[in-house]
Amino acid sequence: MRYMEIGSSGVLASVVSVGTFGIGGGNTWSDTKTDEGMTSSILDAALDCGVNLVDTAPVYGIGTSERFLKKALKGRREKFFIQTKCGLNWREGDDSILEYIRDEKYVRRNLRAEAIRKDLEDSLCRMGIDHVDIYITHRQSNITPVEETMGELLKMKKEGKIRAIGISNASPEILEAYEKVGHVDLVQEKFSILSPAAKEKYIPVCERLGTAFQVYSSLESGALTGPEALGKVFPEGDLRTRNKWFTEEMRLRMLALYQGWEPLLEKYSCSLVNLVQAWTLEQSPNINLLTGIRRVETLVDTAKATEISLSPEDVQKMQKDCRTLMAL
Fold first, then answer.
1. Separation between Cα atoms, residue 162 and residue 175, nearest integer Å
2. In terms of CATH architecture, what is 3-327?
3. Contacts of 289 (CB under 8 A, 6+ apart)
4. Which sign does the torsion angle of CA 304, 310, 315, 317 carry?
5. Which residue among the candidates 60, 135, 178, 216 is catalytic per the annotation?
6. Distance (Å, whole) CA 138 – CA 218
7. What phi-psi label fits residue 177: left (phi over 0), alpha (psi between -120 and 50 degrees) or beta?
8. Residue 268 designated active-site
9. Model pLDDT for residues 54-109, shown as the tens digit of each residue
10. Left, alpha or beta for 320 (phi > 0: left; psi -120 to 50: alpha)?
């Protein structure tokens, strides 16, 4: 396993991190059964693979993911860096704008100082810990000034309740606005070989500022795991119903893409998942690869991606193949 410092925080994290969105279950992952025991098994495997960074959020299963981590972390909190998020809550009495309804809860976006302070207190209680290593604004607000949000995050950091500050689902411009108030150690954004827009502007800004770029959805919610995934049908409410790569229109194109990469799988003796994730890591030394983990086997396989070094020619070939796919 390779390791990287998250910004200038002193947090030396594995370049692969465990995502617990799926562990939380709920109707966004219709094929997941919530299981406390599985969460502990995943952390066991993480230690075996040298993975020490775990990502969660209050809204993952409406508190379920964080509660499962409480039991899984018992007796070994010091072996992991934990990152969670603020800005989305389902507390009664919150008068902020409704974001969505999930699992029969009204989730609202609120980045006011008192709201994110309460978010942190709730998360610490659910996980049974006294501090969070990386604290991330889950989504950004066009109402609350960045100065207010960042000011409160800096207070939390000074108090020792958080070690590093991150933002998610933002933009280079929003990152620059936060930086005027205090340093952002990590940004968490969607990025994949099929959705590579951040490579042009966002990643270079992060490199310049010394901010880690943590990738989520590098496998496009499973669409880039192989042909078997493309044949699945998901019920209404499952997030994959909104992913265009699972549509019948794209299925044949995706299958052709996989077929074109078969020589690379043989060349590098790896799985399709490994190949895609290795491509992702090649895009910048600043990248941290966040992968949703719902099975131990997935984590073990993902860790192998750090052992693959793609040639520049193969990196270019994969990108060209994807551009061809999208141009059809």
1. 19
2. Alpha-Beta Barrel (3.20)
3. 15, 16, 17, 214, 215, 218, 277, 280, 281, 302, 305
4. negative
5. 60
6. 18
7. alpha
8. no
9. 999 999 999 999 999 999 999 999 999 999 999 999 999 888 989 988 888 999 99
10. alpha
